[in-house]
Design goal:
Number of helices: 8
Distance between the termini: 52 Å
Number of strands: 4
Shape: elongated
Structural class: alpha+beta
Order of helices and strands: HHHHHHEHEEHE
Largest sheet: 4 strands, antiparallel
Amino acid sequence: MDFLNQFFSTSDVGSGTVIYMTLLAMLTATVLSLVITKVYQLTFTGARYSQAFVHTIIMMSVIVSVVMNVISGNAGVAFGLFAVFSLIRFRSAVTDAKDIAYIFFGLCVGMTSGLFHFDLAIVLTLFASLIFYLLYKFQYGKGKDTQVLKVTVPENLNYLNLLDDIFEKYTESHILCQVETTNLGTMILYTYIIRSKNATKDKELLDRIREKNANLKVSLTYLDIEK
């Protein structure tokens, strides 16, 4: 009973009680993390994002806001709690750097809210969300994905450096990684790893290659599918 009385007793934090300030911190973290996840959904470029991941950002932000309230001013408790957090592992590995950035984004908002720096938490959310959106909108830093190019060449047209002039014009880099015979040895199948130039159109590249290989089969497969 004494514990409950102390818990609900008036504190010097701001002008309210500890419990009310903590509730305000959790509410602020919830609202701001909803903004973060909305930006995440808006800027997501893969086939489908995980609903569980969206929920995780919100829950972690709220939980961290309470944790920061508990450990503020107590370095020993802080190190102990973060040692426990270091044991937490995601069921699925987070491989996309942007997803990791959003997790850290949510944690930072929860931390600032838990320390009752609500103005800073709001400014952080609005400014960082704007940066994420502008990076997505203008596709800053976007380059061509790595591709696997397979070219079938008749044996009578097979000669060294057959496609070098095309690669020089349309690709940033190309590596020949496999050569094999097909169709009872009458044709050669070349497999390249290439990175096209930003201005290169896939159809145009394939058309130029077909002019060189007697219009036989040419395939282009993307290795890096942007998430």
